[in-house]
């Protein structure tokens, strides 16, 4: 799912003639103003507004200076998530609302973009961030109606084997959403949605906390910090320390001194 294009664009006095894209183009304006027109309406898009251009939608830009964060999810990716929401094997092309003024949508968009830009990026975190954003705007800002959404709720017990799988593979640097969803016998979209509903955090967040807890356990031994990082599934010692501090408020070396 992480093969998605994204860009941070800055335009100055730009005019674009009529054109279309073959994928979805979703942008969050953060500076300036975009004077945009599609076949139905004209708009001045200002900071904080998410703009969506649906596939094959004819649109233009008129003499605009603006900056925006932009992602380009494919039709197949959006359709896959929509099919999972609707529990259908086939469906007509989904269209998003052209303009989204929603604080939660903006928050999810920015979180997703920050995940893309992170130096410690991993596929599980990227996939979760993409899914969280697209799942939300599909449910609340698209042609999908609320009465069409089919909930197939799972309980915490449904994920016991998944937690065992994470524990058994904690040294793996790239536990993937595919790995976890296959273990649970669910589609990756259904798995991600239900996991978060049950545990209150995303699968990637859960795995990271599991790794931190593994560090705590190994700090009771005589292992070096570099060995502990390896055994806990971190790419290196410095990244392990950064993540550990994020959840603990102090460094692993401090707790090692206290324990000894």
From TrEMBL:
The keyword Transcription appears for this protein: yes
Domain HTH araC/xylS-type residues, every copy: 160-258
PROSITE patterns: HTH_ARAC_FAMILY_2
GO MF annotation: an example: sequence-specific DNA binding
Keyword DNA-binding carried by entry: yes
Signal peptide: none
Keywords: DNA-binding, Transcription, Transcription regulation
Pfam families: AraC_binding, HTH_18
Domain of life of the source: Bacteria
SUPFAM superfamilies with a match to the protein in the record: Homeodomain-like (SSF46689), Regulatory protein AraC (SSF51215)
UniProt cross-references to PANTHER family, sorted A to Z: HTH-TYPE TRANSCRIPTIONAL ACTIVATOR RHAS-RELATED
The protein's name: AraC family transcriptional regulator
Organism: Arcobacter arenosus
């Amino acid at each position: 799912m992480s093969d998605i294009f994204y860009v941070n664009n800055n335009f100055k006095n730009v005019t674009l003639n009529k054109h279309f894209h073959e994928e979805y183009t979703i942008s969050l304006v953060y500076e300036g103003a975009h004077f945009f027109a599609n076949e139905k309406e004209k708009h001045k898009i200002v900071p904080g507004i998410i703009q969506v251009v649906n596939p094959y939608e004819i649109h233009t830009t008129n003499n605009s200076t603006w900056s925006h964060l932009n992602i380009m999810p494919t039709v197949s990716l959006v359709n896959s998530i929509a099919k999972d929401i609707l529990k259908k094997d086939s469906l007509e092309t989904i269209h998003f609302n052209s303009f989204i003024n929603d604080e939660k949508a903006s928050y999810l968009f920015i979180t997703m973009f920050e995940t893309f830009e992170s130096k410690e990026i991993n596929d599980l975190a990227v996939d979760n961030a993409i899914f969280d954003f697209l799942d939300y705007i599909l449910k609340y800002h698209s042609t999908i109606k609320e009465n069409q959404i089919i909930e197939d709720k799972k309980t915490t017990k449904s994920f016991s084997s998944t937690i065992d799988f994470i524990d058994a593979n904690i040294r793996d640097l790239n536990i993937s959403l595919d790995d976890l969803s296959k273990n649970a016998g669910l589609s990756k979209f259904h798995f991600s949605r239900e996991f978060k509903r049950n545990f209150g955090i995303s699968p990637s967040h859960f795995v990271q906390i599991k790794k931190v807890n593994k560090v705590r356990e190994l700090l009771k031994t005589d292992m070096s910090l570099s060995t502990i990082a390896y055994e806990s599934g971190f790419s290196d010692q410095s990244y392990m320390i950064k993540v550990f501090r994020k959840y603990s408020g102090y460094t692993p070396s401090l707790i090692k001194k206290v324990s000894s």
